[in-house]
Amino acid sequence: MQQKRIILAGATGALGLKIAHYLIQSGATVRALVRRGSAGDAVVALKQQGVEIVEVDYKDLNQLAQACADGDCVVSALSGLREVIIDAQTNLLQAAVAAHVPRFIPSDYCIDYTRLPPGSNRNLDLRREFAQRLDKAPIAATSVLNGMFTDLLTGQAPVVLFGLRRIAYWGDAGKLLDFTTLDNTTHFTALAALGDTTPRYLRIAGEIADVMDLKQAATQVTGKTFRLFRIGSLRAFRTLIRITKTIAPSEQEVFPPWQGMQYLHDMFSGLPKLNPLDNNRYAGIRWTTIREVLASRAS
After folding, report:
1. Do 142 and 223 belong to one domain?
2. pTM score > 0.70 for this model?
3. Do 234 and 249 belong to one domain?
4. By the 8 A CB rule, do 24 and 3 touch?
5. For a surface tag, which of 28, 48, 137, 186 has the fewest beta carbons within 10 Å of its beta carbon?
6. Do 101 and 68 form a contact (C-beta atoms < 8 A)?
């Protein structure tokens, strides 16, 4: 079977590096598009794996099209706001079409924004807007949608409060939540990129749990009793988000405090629940549990 060439944008980020690793591990040829002047450990790590590095200007469509030549799939792991998710990705999409690349995977890797009302989450609104452009382009497209990165439960997401031995939540304690590790998401994405055909959306979750399940997992891995801490209703959470955004807008940051709050609100609302799941589409992925991730923090 002919070796596939994958064009990878955003390869120097956390997602991109892992996608590149799994693509190489699966036998693909990888061409990483990096911005001019990119250097550092990430570029070195890519080169050591045998990844071809091509410097590009995302505003130069001809240059982008040349960089996409002979590609079997373009995978975007770009991260940013409108100038990246909309503008740069649109140029990348146009270049992929011009270079006759058959497939495109956008930088989604998030909860199911297709089931959320517009205006509920800025970063997901950008992904929805780009999806509308992608759907109009003459190219096969696949978005990978996943639960919240389980890795965030070890500290960045204010849900498992190790110091207080509490599981913080808003709204209904019985609401089911989707969690997927960064590693599982990138492994799945690499396998999807190497497939010949994929549906428009693929949905994955390493584990589905409610806050009682989180409480049990945290208690088991630490040997200390955790309790639930209901902060308030979802309506109160929406009010807090509006206040936080007014006091500290930080509109130019990708993840200001209110953005993370919007993400948690969406999860606790249950609206973006992933269904059906495509976990069994590819063999060889061992789905990491919440308990395993929390154990790495507790050890």
Report:
1. no
2. yes
3. yes
4. no
5. 48
6. yes
